[in-house]
What we know:
The chain starts with a strand and ends with a strand. The protein has two domains: about 1-135, no CATH class; about 160-329, no CATH class. It has 13 helices and five strands. The longest helix has 21 residues, at about 305-325. Helix content is about 55%, strand content about 5%. Mean pLDDT is about 85; it is low at about 115-120 and about 210-215. By secondary structure, it is mostly helical.
Amino acid sequence: xxxxxxxxxxxxxxFPSIEYCTFLITQIIExxxxxxxxxxxxxxxxxxxxxxxxxxxxxxxxxxxxELTLKIETQSPTSYDSFRNYKTSFSFQFMxxxxxxxxxxxxxxxxxxxTRTPRERYNFTQLSTPPLRQYLADxxxxxxxxxxxxxxxxxYISFYHIxxxxxxxxxxxxxxxxxxxxxxxxxxxxxxxxxVYEIAKFVxxxxxxxxxxxxxxxxxxxxxxxxxxxxIEELRAxxxxxxxxxxTYYQTSKVVFCNAPSIAWSDVQGVYTQLCxxxxxxxNSLIHSKSGRKHELYHPYKDEPILRKEIPLVKAVAELIIxxxxxxx
Length: 329
């Protein structure tokens, strides 16, 4: 259990209550009566696991359900949307600390895969501290997807989607800021044709617009997102906690299958450019498969060990973006 005494919110993650277990089993039997014999089989199997303990419904039913529930309690009436926000905050903090994905079921039928081995006991020590920040649900879902997969391709693309989510917002913010600085500069005057033309060229070069989407250049947008949300020293520290060898690897090694550059962490002026190029070139190699660019093509089995080494980098970047784009509860 974790309690937020400032906001009067209590979070409890654990096996469901006997009442909720009974409700769920009743619901699934009504939907699929043919499962009744299988429930009996699982009940007998779970009951026989611990010969030193007399089985009861209180001990056996939660293991049949096999899943966890999150209970959130507040002292005052709270809206449904607020509860969803609290759930997102708890989910991200749990996943961030445990490196385990919390997967939600969209319907009751998905919960019952009765051939599975019953879940081992959880260690809930990471739940002692409640979440104190509110995170964006969409990006937490991408983070959840990344943690739920063992496939490095899915992990990389899911973490990248978190960066991509902020492209438009950060690009627009940077564009407006830079343009405002130019048109309010004492050097600018709207009566000078050359100065006005410089502004037009600036906008045109910065946007590099796609005629269909109207979005700015993706690589440049990625760099702006990194500069906005990912302090380099925080990134290095987080990478070190994920994989102590990764920081040196990124500094000394390119990404071979796409020739993405190494990262000179001490290069204050160029580190964001190198970081952006490494992430973006790797992403392009995963997404595109043009035969004319075989030297930059990702081969799923051959290159998988190399891609796995890139996961601590994009994971740390994604985590810092989620955290630094959040707000205090």
